[in-house]
Design brief:
heterodimer, A: 0% strand, globular, B: mainly alpha, Ferritin
């Protein structure tokens, strides 16, 4: 793909910085449509690719407003997992984009770290979690995803 | 196989009940261009894609649609869970209540049950991919019709996310179709 170098600039996701920035900072950063959004900025827009972003009714995407530490860590994980999903779909159709593969793997490592941190503090998200080695069986515990937080 | 992740793809935490919106959202839970129809459409079509790019893309988008179905189910559940029977009747959900109580059940916004007739699968990969591009466009249009019916940010935020995903999926299907046009010129 063209201009692969461009997205390498935004490989590093730092939740604490990114979540508090305002929209203008994001827009200034992403004037070049060959750059990707960072994970959180992409997540709240529903895509990592600025040239595909096409909002309707809402001029600016809603910020996620976590109410506690658990929700904040979950938002961090949601954003990283979202980046992986969107890059995965892109790579299925562009399997020879080496820079995107590198970016995918950087997000994958970050996501695994954050998932482990979340699960150690708040319980298992998948049945392969170390947080299942507990008594009583922790898988059944709230929160279940459809329940109001 | 599939593995469950005990969280939503995008958070849903709706505080205000809205029965009419719950009824409208059934369009995307069990209607013709619903997330359920999309998931089953792609997961059935993937077997007869012509190469590995197709196997992967149809599997991965089909999987994401299942996560979207879960978001829709969550939205409808949260909008409806505190409703009285009177409120359900007023919103046109008396029939739903009679047959299903407040359970989730895949119908369209008018209560028509989900049918596999919504799922296109022809084994003609070009026909299937172009059908999928159109399906993503229709789903985007339905999300706009749904967004037009509410001003609740708790509802608009996940709808906006889901609408944008339709745009991304359309683009990926189009890229795969364009790649196949070149790779398999005889089939066009």
């Amino acid at each position: 793909m063209n201009n692969c170098q461009a997205y390498q600039k935004y490989n590093y996701y730092d939740m604490n910085n990114n979540m508090n920035n305002n929209m203008n900072n994001y827009l200034n950063n992403y004037n070049n449509t060959n750059q990707l959004y960072d994970a959180y900025t992409g997540f709240i827009r529903g895509n990592m690719f600025p040239k595909l972003y096409d909002p309707y009714k809402i001029p600016n995407p809603y910020e996620i407003q976590p109410m506690n530490e658990q929700a904040q860590l979950l938002t961090h994980l949601d954003a990283l997992q979202f980046a992986l999903i969107d890059l995965n779909l892109y790579l299925d159709v562009h399997p020879e984009d080496r820079n995107m593969i590198n970016l995918f793997n950087q997000y994958r490592v970050q996501k695994e770290q954050v998932k482990k941190e979340y699960e150690n503090k708040f319980g298992p998200l998948t049945l392969s979690s170390d947080a299942l080695n507990t008594y009583p069986w922790a898988w059944i515990n709230e929160p279940w995803p459809w329940r109001n937080q | 196989m599939w593995q469950y992740v005990k969280k939503l793809q995008y958070p849903v935490n709706i505080q205000r009940k809205d029965l009419k919106m719950a009824k409208a959202l059934l369009a995307q839970y069990g209607g013709p261009d619903s997330e359920l129809a999309a998931a089953l459409r792609y997961l059935n079509q993937r077997y007869t894609m012509p190469d590995e790019r197709g196997y992967a893309l149809l599997t991965d988008i089909g999987t994401e649609e299942l996560a979207h179905l879960e978001m829709l189910g969550t939205m409808i559940y949260q909008l409806m869970k505190d409703a009285t029977i009177e409120e359900l009747k007023e919103a046109g959900l008396a029939g739903h209540y009679a047959q299903h109580g407040k359970a989730l059940f895949p119908t369209d916004a008018n209560g028509v049950p989900f049918t596999s007739a919504y799922i296109e699968a022809t084994a003609d990969f070009m026909a299937d991919l172009e059908s999928n591009m159109a399906a993503e466009q229709r789903a985007r249009a339905v999300y706009e019709n749904l967004m037009n019916q509410t001003n609740d940010p708790d509802v608009l935020a996940p709808l906006s996310f889901l609408r944008q995903r339709e745009i991304v999926h359309f683009e990926r299907f189009k890229e795969l179709r364009d790649y196949y046009l070149q790779k398999y010129p005889k089939n066009t």
